[in-house]
């Protein structure tokens, strides 16, 4: 199982990137959001990956964050949502916005993605609402107020410790709200861990 690639961005296309890892080029399908986050061609980059295997194909899909990959897995678990549609949704919406849309039942927001009609948007919201729950509604300004990159790094730290994406995001948002703007990464992680263990 290939879970991530660290290498040099060799080239990009409309919906894919080629990552050179030790002289081997890996083509990974990607959302527009991921492609824009990879940086300039020739520079070092990291992509989180999901390997799709069918009867007559193998395809590697890449993501700029583990959170985005987790959402891809959730989306492709919904009947009628294939890899292409899931990537279109992730191109149109950031994971936190997608969490909010599903938690609040906002099918119109989900339907903004190319290839997603009202019926499919409704199915996505209905099938994923229980998996997302209402916790995403608390996200927002609290995440934005943290020192640049600190919230994202803190969420990543909790994910590496085995917390689920939504658990990590909510715990970090609560910690950030309590500590206020400019909190250090170390303080955020420590408080977020305490809050996550109580929930």
Automatic annotation (TrEMBL):
Domain I, as annotated region: 1-64
GO cellular component terms given for this protein: cytoplasm; Holliday junction helicase complex; Holliday junction resolvase complex
CDD domains reported for this sequence: UBA_RuvA_C
Main location: cytoplasm
Keyword DNA repair: yes
Top-rank lineage group of the source organism: Bacteria
Subcellular location: Cytoplasm
Protein family per UniProt: Belongs to the RuvA family.
Descriptive protein name: Holliday junction branch migration complex subunit RuvA
Annotated source species: Sphingomonas taxi
Primary gene name: ruvA
